[in-house]
Amino acid sequence: MVYFNESEFDVKFEDLLQQVERLCDENTRDVALGNARRALKLLLDRFRRHEKITLLDRQSMANALEQVRRVLGRDTRYHDQIADIEDYVDDNYVEAKK
Predict the structure, then answer these.
(1) Which end of the chain has less neighbouring CB within 10 Å, N or C?
(2) CA distances from 49 to 2, 13, 30, 62, 88 (A)
(3) pLDDT, position 66
(4) How far apart, in whole angstroms, are the C-alpha atoms of residue 96 and residue 1?
(5) b vs e for 10-29, b when ≥16 Cβ sit within 10 Å of the residue's Cβ?
(6) Which DSSP category does 74 fall into?
(7) What is the pTM of this model?
(8) For 28, how many CA atoms within 13 A lie in the half-sphere containing its CB?
(9) What does the alpha-carbon distance between residue 28 and residue 38 come to, in Å, rounded to a whole number?
(10) Digit-coded pLDDT (tens) for 6-58
């Protein structure tokens, strides 16, 4: 499913961040997950300001989301949502290559 509007994207990203917060609470010693949470929060703030991100920022987002997937493990409930978030970001927030 691809998000059709910005507000739906915002809700889904916020929902994912809440799940990441819960995962961080459960895995307090997982430094990589904490770093992923911070990176995702910073990116969401940029998206809310309608800022474009560079390919390097996009790679940072991919790395953060991979950490989230790693911790989720077999709980695939959020895997499709993560893919949809990535698709929306690619379509709307990644700067065109110059």
Answers:
(1) C
(2) 21, 14, 30, 20, 15
(3) 96
(4) 23
(5) eebbeebbebbeebbeeeee
(6) T
(7) 0.90
(8) 1
(9) 14
(10) 899 999 999 999 999 999 999 999 999 999 999 999 999 999 999 999 999 99
